[in-house]
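Q: Mind making up any chain with structure tokens?
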Amino acid sequence: MRCIIALLAWLASTVLILGAEAGKSADFASAMAPIMANLRTAASYARTGNIALAQMETDEAVAAWKRLAPTASGSLPVYAAAALAEFLDRGGERLTTATRALDGGDNVAAGRELLALRQSFHELRRRAGLYDLGDCVFEVAPSMEKLRIAATRYGGQTAPANAEDTVAAAGAFRDRLQRCNDWASPEIAEKSEFRRLIDGAIASSGAIAHAAMAGDGPLVHRYLIELQSYAQLLDFRYG
């Protein structure tokens, strides 16, 4: 009888510990969500030269980061302690650097630091085996950059080789978008905004490939601008 009671007590304590650990992870994720939104918005404003608005977003991120650090200093089961500590320390430094760059009117340097901070968070998640729609959307940018380079080269010379590169880059970009569509939760996947962005981008990635194969440089350029807008909006809302 005493053995059964002891076993039940052990099971109860284990459940409480696991629940507390899960609560810590959920709290950290909840705390990071608005910070990541601030970083995305600040980067968008910095890219368009709206320094004052970017500063407002980074100020909010800095304030939230200061509240985050003591909370996250305890053990979080999904993250390696050393990796989490490095992320928090380096992230605080990057936020400070981005803020100073904005104060000096250097929106390019600020954007670079904000991007590096966002990337470090996604790397932290990846090392912990975590992945969701936000991680997928963040990975759209490199595919978009490859397509931009290929389409720009094609615009300068509509040679068959350049057309092939553009078609290949458009296909890779489309595949990435399809993957993100698959990672969207049912709630997000049904939202009209998400559908307009993801479906529009997928359709235009096919259209730019057809335009390249047809030798229509101006149409390739038009679709490139459209796709860059889609990519930026997807990142702004879901990255």
